[in-house]
Amino acid sequence: MTLSTELAEWSKERVQDLIAEATPADVDRAMACGERSLYDLAALLSPHARARLEEIAREAQRLTRHHFGRTVSLYVPIYLSNVCGSDCVYCGFSPKSGERGKRVTLGLDKLRDECIALARRGFQSVLLLTGDAPKVAPVEYIAEAISISREFFPSVSVEVYAMDEDDYRLLSDRGLEGMTLYMETFDRDTYSQVHLSGPKRDYDYRLDSHERAGRAGVRKLTLGVLLGLFDWRVDTFWLAIQARYLQRHCWQSAVSISFPRLRHVPSRFRIPSVLSDADLVQQMLALRLFLPEAGFNLSTREPAEFRDHLIPLGITSMSAGSSTRPGGYATYGTHTLEQFEIEDYRSPGEVVDAIRRAGYDPVWKDFDLAFDEVS
């Protein structure tokens, strides 16, 4: 059974009814059991679970410490390009967003400068990003960017456009460890409404990207939904199906979840399903109980104080000192177009201090290069 056919078994109406019909007894059952089913997840996402968030948080904390210890790893994004060929109405990189700023694609010499600046700050894990423009930032360019980044960082991941399996294999051969790709929303109607043109309109090709990457040898698969585009409870349910599917079919890869919440968007777009802080907390806790072995990533989209409060609730990785502009660390400063405005402007050192105050150990590198040799 493919991921698409599994998702098709759980229509929007079926998931909404399941969540709406969950009772306090269903929440009790979900809290008491070991390995949780989709029915348990629906109970944990239901309104009845909202009143029990503190109790659920204690279990989430216990599970996270059991599987990950008291550690939070650190990473930083490097934007290679802000040129994009897809018109996604929520994104500042869209050619029709109306956002001002210089559009650039970093030369490899400029990328090296960015890597030097970030390595000096202590980072050993980076995420390379581009817009959805394969002609401007082709696979071969991204492969070279990975090779250069591996000179400075033991762990290199990408968040780029969806690729063929052979393309992911090329990147993996160059030293790629992980890939991040958000489905944005699993609801097909909403997906078509917010992706107006360009290669990203192909829902099914994007849906199967993680599985292609896993078959190609990518060791970390990060997924998520863009919170605010659709009913967060239903999208979270579908996201959990995707995560479990990948854990079964790409068992040699680790699955992680990110929690990107829409905040700053182009003026032409209004966020249709705004998420509250409590909604985000409930989503995170429900997924932790359903996916106890999955890494949880939190970016600087969220404000500093809120990020600090989320650390004990299941977070295993955080970005710090981020720029969402190409060349934002050593080359162009604030002169290039940013994808979105960040909320946490703290330095890496300040984020490290916050992690320690929460009783956790900040980790710059959590594995040895001997386990990740590139032929």
In short:
By secondary structure, the chain is α/β, with parallel strands linked by helices. The protein is 41% helix and 12% strand.
SSE layout:
Blueprint: H1 3-8, H2 12-20, H3 24-32, H4 38-45, H5 47-50, H6 53-68, E1 71-79, E2 87-88, H7 108-120, E3 125-129, H8 139-150, E4 155-159, H9 165-173, E5 178-180, H10 188-194, E6 195-197, H11 203-207, H12 209-215, E7 220-223, H13 232-249, E8 254-258, H14 277-290, E9 295-298, H15 304-310, E10 317-319, H16 348-357, E11 361-363
Parallel strand pairs: 1-3, 1-10, 1-11, 3-4, 4-5, 5-7, 7-8, 8-9, 9-10
Antiparallel strand pairs: 2-6
Helix pairs in contact: 3-4, 4-13, 4-14, 6-14, 7-8, 13-14
Work out the radius of gyration. Answer: 20 Å
Strand order of the largest sheet: 1-3-4-5-7-8-9-10
Helix segment tally: 16
Named CATH topology: TIM Barrel
Kindly report how far apart the N and C termini lie: 34 Å
Per CATH, the architecture is Alpha-Beta Barrel
Low-confidence segments, ≥5 residues, pLDDT <50? 368-375
CATH superfamily: Aldolase class I
Bin the helical content: 40-55%
| Class based on secondary structure composition and strand pairing | alpha/beta
Q: What overall form do the CA principal axes indicate?
A: globular
Beta-strand segment tally: 11
Taken as a percent bin, the fraction of beta residues is 5-15%
> Secondary-structure element order, as H and E?
HHHHHHEEHEHEHEHEHHEHEHEHEHE
Q: Major sheet, described briefly? A: 8 strands, parallel, barrel
Residue-averaged pLDDT, rounded?
A: 95
The total number of structural domains is: 1
CATH class: Alpha Beta
